[in-house]
């Protein structure tokens, strides 16, 4: 399964992501009259998809390769988003409706007099980048250390991750927490002095996201393909066996878990920049479940599948919510059911099957893949 | 790249993205054919049809479809038919952003009617300002906002909350001297309560006689809160509850009130988010006498309202569908926009925005809604008591329409702010003391 | 005098929900010794292995390996001390190739960070080749372990055990499901291994135990019933009682 | 306290009119003439269309648009012991009283005919020229007072007792005379005690005639002994009255403290009740999941939707009963429970046969498929019933509350607790005592062996899932009594249900019970201390930490067979 089809093609798909993003960005800078011109709407849309794809890669890392079904990964995504959102909020400066140079609008209106301590340094992009990785990393580390050490696994772990993101959602909904309550952070103006609403910034951000996604994909592939990756598979399939070989599976899982959380957080940061809003709704357990579904649709344990699943499902959602605003949930629900029933290995598995069928007619392919399921 | 095992060929991918772009350009579903000839004018409908907000917003989508239908039967706008583009932002705030952008950039709609929650409005605000769109927002809200691209057709706090408190303080409302402010923890209740606390203080109510409590969204277990209200009411002073509980959570709240036997004659509850639509899901017998403050009630007997209700029943083919305040707000907003387009003879956003201020539209319940320079409107305020048939009986109303204050004089930070989108000020948050526009101003 | 024993269990007891799985069990194993453990179902054989390898913690009693207290260590720590275990049901990493299974078992790198940047060394390649020979799996080295036959999986697991280079091997029913020829070959392999390492074998198959030709411990209801050469033990009336039932 | 004066007058009038007036208290007498004068001076003055109308009388105030005038008029009419006054007030209470727009004419319109109030002669007013008499809380209060006053004097013993209790809860100084009078004529011990309570409350209420300190102290002592929040409210009002004697006010303060102490203890019991009732709701919604998820291992994300369908079934049954046999409307819930069970079981079988059975052994994929299913069910319900709430009514015997000492026990919550217990017991019996239960356990513990023993596993799977779904439907019936019935209903419960099952230990119904009650009571204990949100967050964190310590929940299944 690891040597599967979506996995081997990671570098190719990664390149493709960058190339497509590059074309779209260039196209969006062309005048409308040009036949190759791309609507700016598509640029922000694809930017959002890529951020989601990053989250999907993160989910795939822990679910596909370490066997941890997470129902709470959107929490790390959202935390990364908030860390970036804090920086973008500070960048607004005096351009908020109250014109307060120090306090974001929502604090002014709650009659806060000064910034709470955890906003310290949030006006520096470097601090933002550090926070994007550090906060979800530490939370994931703490959570994972406790959970894996005491061998919480299977559905127990899934439900606990769900409880985690649910608790965070409730916390962030509170206005008293200092992150804007239900409204979250929004109405951003600049990033590093560049106007977020300008087409050039948008196009650049898209290419930047694509590059980061491609890098993440290749990095993830590297992580799971070496000897560490083999151990990861071993832990996924027979965790207790690895213990008797002298390995500590909790360490292995913890490492992947934290890395995955950071990838999700990076996705969240890119998301906020391109979508322009972050609020507690991102912590909703439904979002985490959806991210798992993207991976399942694309194909678990293939990295490529995660990216393709995330983009396709979200693209479908965009289309259906516009075409069939009253019936699109039927389509989406049916998609999930049909995928699990008929494509247990996702779209990548479908590709795999097609290839195998083709391989049967082409004699030079000697290697036969064993069936992972016994 | 000749490897036969490649998952998707580059050509396929290109085709896919082309299909994507094409699909984008086609845009959203268009609703019902139009009678008048000429190039149709598209208007966007941005209301959640699924998810948690569908319960409130689906009706508003139907209202706009009805208004479009009626307008087209009257010959459209300036001889051109209207066409509603309906999308579903699925109660997901970032999806509102995406859909707003789609409506403005891809469907190129002349105006958008949409949003319910404050957060959805805040989410789309930057998009409307960036792409210079027009949004008609139909729901009562917390104020403290004044965007050039938004027309606020719902009540500002001074058009709902303050008159409601006045009523409770007065003899007809029971001369309440103790207030429990119960709300859902989000920006509308927070702001409204902040304003009300300042107002109550000014009216001589001691801090100890005001209790503030916030509950999470979708709270379904109100036992503790209701018993706290009962205990709070046992201090020997007439007590009233001011509820800013968000739509969904109201049903279990009222069910608990009824179960614990709190009658409106003992501790009246004044709600700002409970309308006919919410009551439709409840058995209102235990709630008779509980109060709500709105700018419209279905029960108000005027010819215009009767006609509107009839049209609504005909359109929905259901004589049971109720009407409510945000529906009237859409009615007003839609007609104001039609007026503006007909007056300017164009759908050009800048011209329409400029033409809006000063336009007048009769309310369904009598009186006139006038668009103010701060893009809010004048509104009458009604206080209704819940009846056992699920309707409200108006027990008090303002003698004339009240102009909206976008910025509350009871919040220290906004005491001096005013919004005026006419030249030469042309600013949503103009500081009258400093004589300066805070934040960005429209060129 | 005997040198200090390699493995020593003294007065070990453990119970689950009131059921005494191991009851005051004492057992010791000298360095280089091979011991067969037999006993009816539920005698506590697997639980004893669980206690030695750290999977189950005894309620009372002492467990020592080379004088070290094992009751305070967890499975990986005990494995790193040099105790290898083969399970009753063969457990190999089915999604990995035979070669990768062996690679993971090789003594050496154990921390996840060191694995991240590990390169396969010449020595490792050589060791794996040797193990493939020993377990007669060289021809299937690149196949997924899941596609092996039951007997081959047993052998692969023994190969993985050898890759760990343990001082003590705990082998739980190694010949279950094997043909007679495979069984005898396995007995040969274990005797071969025993030349350099100590071995504890749990087995039902008396032919196999006889072929091993080592002293036997009979477990019954969680404690030692009899100990000694197989012929002697199998003549013991108590043992006959236990096996035939009264 | 302008109101008080005319109400005092009212009391005098009632007594005089009824021929009961024995002594005329000085205090009342002094105010009476002017008060009556004022009444008379106020003939629907603000009514805008005052044409040449007949002379205003006690009734014309009802036609006013001003609530104070209407309330005053009610008081006046209440003092007239005539059948037409009685009819008028009755018509007002049942919305049958209409007023002419001229500010004078009054008609009763019950059934199809119109009748003039003053003459009783059938009339035919122009429907556009009349409006229902305006009613608000103030008018309702005045009406209730008058009716209580009348009942106290002329009612049956039961009515008198009810009126006295009402007075004890809503002390009204204007009715002091009536209470005194009733006390003189009362020979019933229960009524006597209630009247004394009412009198004590009235003496201490604002606007009451001045009493001597000893009377006041006795009243304070009486209320102190009585306890409860109403007494506390009266005492608090009295303690804040600066014109009252200091000694009595101090006593009132002490009495309040004493009541507060008692209330605090009762509050613990109350909190336990709230906790148990929240726990029962959690238990109900989690029990079905404990079967489908706990026993079968199916991660059924559509569980909440099954609960929702149960609630909608209740709605349909209510609607059906109202249409077919309105007489049975009190028993709709009794009918709805089996209906919901059957409907949801049937849907459960459908889901199992068409979806779940292809996914056994792949628990995580059941999660994805059932999530898709939950979206479809939600949207289907939205298409059929609309996205707004539907009204499920609470039958009379389930509404309201009763006092248990200082605790308020709400009927609907109590019913849900009993219902949850009954479902739990029934489920236990099914699992332990029936062939199906035995087969179910056999199949979950060793499917292969069960097949070999001749158990039709496919049938058992379908029935098990049906049972779990049916129980979810039952939960829906209960939830419809306390929550919104909307397509979103299920979403609100799914996370909590999973948490309960996992916290309790998968596959163990006792664990589910313990977890539900722990979460319920824990939540309700933390809520007043930390607030609802923080309390819930803390509870979630505690559960997370707990599961780290005990990775298999509170009551893990143990033994050799359970492998990680």
Automatic annotation (TrEMBL), chain B:
CDD domains: PBP1_FmdD-like. It comes from the Bacteria. PANTHER family: ALIPHATIC AMIDASE EXPRESSION-REGULATING PROTEIN, PTHR47628. This is Urea ABC transporter substrate-binding protein. It comes from Komagataeibacter swingsii.
From TrEMBL, chain C:
Residues 7-246 form the ABC transporter domain. SUPFAM superfamilies: P-loop containing nucleoside triphosphate hydrolases (SSF52540). InterPro entries: ABC_AA/LPS_Transport, ABC_transporter-like_ATP-bd, ABC_transptr_urea_ATP-bd_UrtD, BCA_ABC_TP_C, P-loop_NTPase. GO terms for molecular function: ATP binding; ATP hydrolysis activity. Pfam families: ABC_tran, BCA_ABC_TP_C. Keywords: ATP-binding, Nucleotide-binding, Transport. One of its GO terms (cellular component) is plasma membrane. This is Urea ABC transporter ATP-binding protein UrtD. The lineage of its organism: Bacteria, Pseudomonadati, Pseudomonadota, Alphaproteobacteria, Acetobacterales. The gene is urtD.
From TrEMBL, chain D:
NCBIfam families: urea_trans_UrtB (TIGR03409). GO terms for biological process: amino acid transport. Belongs to the binding-protein-dependent transport system permease family. LivHM subfamily. GO terms for molecular function: transmembrane transporter activity. The chain crosses the membrane at residues 272-299, 331-351, 363-381, 414-431, 462-482, 494-517, 529-547. Residues 1-22 form the signal peptide. This is Urea ABC transporter permease subunit UrtB. It is a multi-pass membrane protein. It holds the Pfam family BPD_transp_2. Keywords: Amino-acid transport, Cell membrane, Membrane, Signal, Transmembrane, Transmembrane helix, Transport. It comes from Komagataeibacter swingsii. GO terms for cellular component: plasma membrane. PANTHER family: ABC TRANSPORTER PERMEASE PROTEIN (PTHR11795:SF447), BRANCHED-CHAIN AMINO ACID TRANSPORT SYSTEM PERMEASE PROTEIN LIVH (PTHR11795). It is found in: Cell membrane. CDD domains: TM_PBP1_LivH_like. It comes from the Bacteria.
